[in-house]
# Entry
Amino acid sequence: MDDHLIGVLSNIGIVSFVALSAYLLLLTGEISFGQQAFFAIGAYAAGIATALWGWPLALALAAGAVSGAAAAVLVGIPTLRLHGLYFSIATLAFAEMVRILFELFRYQVEIDGEPVGPDGAAGFRNIRYIFDHNIDAVQFLLLIYALLAVVLLGFVWLERSRTGVAFRMIGEDETLAGLQGVAVARHKVLAAGLAGALAGVGGGLYAHLTTYVEPRIFDVMLGVHSLAYGLIGGLGTALGPLLGVLIDIGLLESIRALAGYRMIIFGGIVAVLLIVRPRGLLDERAVHGIGVLWRRMRRQT
Amino acid sequence: MVDLVQNTIDGLMIGSSYGLLALGFTLIFGVMRRLNLSYGPSIMIGGYLGTVLYLQFGAGPLVVAAAVVIGAAVAGLYVERLCFAPMKAGAAIASMVSSFAIWMQLEQAAILVLPRHTYAFPALATGAPLEFGPFTVRPDHLVMLGSALGLAAAVQLVLYRTRFGLGLRAIIGNPVAAHLVGIDVRTALPLAFAGASAVGGVAGFLVLAVDQQVTPMFGMWATLKGLIAMMIGGLGSVPGAVLGGLLLGVIEAQSQWYFGPQIRDLMAYFVLFAVLALRPRGLVGSLPEAATQKA
# Structure
């Protein structure tokens, strides 16, 4: 595989984590503009763990997940009673606060005569774990997709579990779900925490792939994009957000010839697509239809 | 003490344009019940139209102002036709994401027309700052404050003293009921949308004229400032939007002066988060459960 393709595939895989994070909250009916914050927190936490404290990668990624989840639960509780636009803007405000705090965050340790660590707005350089341990790009790509596969299996399990049903019930009608005995508050905080962990793992992977993060990357654009992926790809299955990422990054990268015009074309396509399919390509009905077709085909053979 | 008062004066001046941005935003949200992320980028398109006229034909401030307002209204109408009018009922989040996609489109269009990062924008009311004892006021700031408050008052008059305004308020209250009593919702919605974008256009012109430059980032800036001021003030109210804007202006001016630009932005978002967590309806918000609909 050539380097460019590996780079694009790695990007698709990592962005999928944030897209799935936004998707998980969409299941419970909430629109978050702020999942990039947990991506950022995961990136910094995992980067600090390997570059400054010399932790192994697996532990660092776990640290990214835990800190993403912890921060998400911390925001999840005061925003519990917010809905719709109010929730979206509260998450946006939180995420921007996190980004600005990282611009002010300095924590450097001298390693081999060089200062290493987050340096405010200048970013966090030299997260060199994959070079120091001779992990090549293909191996790292496999790691990304292995983790993504685990996450997708988790989603398959979730959609079949009582918890997943509770999430979708809350998404349909929170009051009704509460009346039917769903512990609404607990499930919403759980969803927020899981979504934060997902974004945190993605951030940890991102920091180690690029070896360099700066606060600017984690702006609201990333958040709104990851939200849009679920809507484009479809809200019926966890494969929806992945399809969204694939269409955006995959398509944008593949039609380079259109360089200056690609957002004009892509923006138009998305707008028209959402008129025809307001819940994305793989919406609930499409997923149900595919399921029925699949079972019918299996019965015939 | 002098600094504190001077910052408050500056903050109120700048804040008046934030209030105007919030006003256009809250009008659109009120009639649509959907968030138009392309609100700022529509204004940015108006700004680019004004800059082109200024750079190519040497147009004066009044012509440029008219171009910004008309450009914003036309771009707003385009967004309405593409992202809001054809959407199915209940597809609020699809409208929002669609307006985000069109944001990307408008930004790229602006960059195609004028590829450099910044372009000059004509200044407004240049001249020495006016002195009031130890305090100074920039003349263009005064024009900004005057136009912003005047326009906000005019919008309030249209909403509460005209038949069209009555119709709009009926739609804001309940679109289905408004339709049933014979209000022409189909015409009123695009009109209100374009009008609100034009209000944003006025704010955009005032800010750009004070800054004397325009960049493609102006779209994002306008969307964010309008959104913050609107949410602090509370959805669905003209005085709320103005108050939210003025408050945001003062908070920014004070924290910028004492702590620098990073803390300024941090403070703005912190106040926004605190208002939402403690008093979700905003300071003077009046929209009933409307805004709390689900994805």
About this structure: Chain B touches chain A through 48 residues (CB under 8 Å). The mean pLDDT of chain B is 91. Strands of chain B lie at 119-120, 130-132, 135-137, 213-214. The CA atoms of residues 233 and 243 of chain B lie 6 Å apart.
